[in-house]
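User: quick one, sequence for these tokens?
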């Protein structure tokens, strides 16, 4: 091997993250070549299709290129290509081959106007709020109680669970969203007080408002949303949600859904509304990833940076760390996506290609039958 050819690598957790400027992804000699980085930190990596065990190629930014041959290489090994911009918006996604099931698509379309769709939405939101309540219990030292409509103070977790218990399929989507929003306000008020540690060599130079998570809404946006983060915590959350959106979209494709036809989330140009529905019960799993990270290590120089508009973006080192958890985010989405398919079709025996639960159950049953037969034969011989 000549000195200009990098050694063949195996991506950590099956995920390649390419970030920086002048990105180049192409194929040479049957290997995928990934060139990325910033300034003197540019690097070149090389992967072979047979041993890479690649699941995802995540590109952060918009400066560079990927060849058609590289796209084909990624698809041929069953991986997905994902492009996320520096504000954590999902730009492009090339998912593995999807399963086509006309009955499920038809049920998906009809469910939006039927009680079945509202029941499915209730199930998704209740799962989300229960996990949010558990996180609120973990963070109870930051905000112990909340007062609801001048009543006696109750814990934040109890307030969230009250909203979940108020949900049922006879309510409209608008009312369900209101209940979810009320729970979210209490949840994010608690999150706003999460503190952030920084590396001692950088600590004295960071803005004061970076030391806590801060409100979910962003002062950098006219509409008061959270897409343009102004603190490191929400920049991390936004990026993790972008990875979660990718996994939800891929899950929808594999099951045979149309990711753009939502239930609770209305149709919107360039948005996968059903993928956004599927994200809801898994968002707390993304929150936990960020919370665990913040409690385990400080942020270092290069992990985040601030633009001239005051928007905080995560750097390539931190992006790689978070993207490595995409498999756990898929695991958080998968059971809810499969349950949604069963609910809409009214079939408890619908395939489970994401969790492979039916496959595992069949193997366990076969083993149990084999042991039973072996014991029976032993008894007869005795």
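Assistant:
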């Amino acid at each position: 091997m000549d000195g200009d050819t990098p050694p063949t690598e195996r991506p950590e957790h099956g995920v390649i993250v390419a970030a920086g400027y002048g990105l180049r992804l192409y194929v040479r000699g049957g290997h995928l070549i990934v060139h990325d980085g910033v300034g003197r930190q540019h690097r070149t990596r090389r992967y072979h299709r047979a041993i890479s065990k690649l699941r995802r190629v995540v590109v952060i930014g918009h400066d560079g290129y990927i060849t058609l041959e590289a796209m084909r290489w990624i698809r041929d090994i069953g991986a997905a290509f994902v492009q996320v911009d520096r504000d954590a918006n999902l730009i492009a996604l090339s998912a593995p081959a999807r399963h086509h099931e006309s009955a499920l698509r038809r049920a998906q379309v009809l469910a939006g106007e039927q009680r079945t769709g509202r029941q499915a939405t209730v199930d998704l939101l209740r799962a989300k709020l229960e996990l949010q309540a558990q996180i609120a219990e973990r963070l109870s030292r930051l905000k112990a109680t909340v007062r609801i409509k001048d009543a006696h103070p109750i814990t934040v977790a109890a307030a969230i669970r009250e909203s979940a218990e108020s949900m049922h399929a006879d309510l409209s989507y608008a009312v369900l969203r209101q209940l979810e929003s009320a729970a979210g306000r209490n949840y994010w008020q608690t999150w706003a007080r999460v503190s952030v540690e920084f590396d001692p060599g950088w600590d004295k130079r960071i803005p004061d408002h970076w030391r806590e998570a801060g409100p979910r809404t962003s002062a950098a946006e006219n509409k008061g949303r959270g897409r343009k983060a102004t603190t490191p915590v929400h920049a991390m959350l936004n990026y993790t949600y972008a990875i979660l959106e990718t996994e939800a979209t891929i899950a929808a494709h594999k099951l045979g859904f149309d990711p753009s036809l939502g239930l609770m989330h209305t149709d919107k140009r360039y948005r996968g509304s059903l993928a956004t529905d599927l994200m809801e019960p898994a968002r707390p799993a993304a929150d936990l990833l960020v919370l665990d990270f913040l409690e385990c290590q400080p942020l270092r120089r290069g992990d985040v940076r601030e633009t001239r508009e005051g928007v905080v973006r995560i750097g390539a080192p931190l992006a790689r760390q978070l993207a490595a958890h995409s498999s756990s985010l898929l695991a958080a989405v998968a059971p809810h996506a499969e349950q949604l398919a069963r609910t809409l079709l009214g079939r408890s025996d619908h395939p489970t290609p994401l969790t492979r639960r039916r496959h595992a159950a069949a193997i366990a049953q076969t083993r149990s039958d084999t042991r039973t037969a072996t014991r029976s034969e032993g008894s007869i011989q005795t």
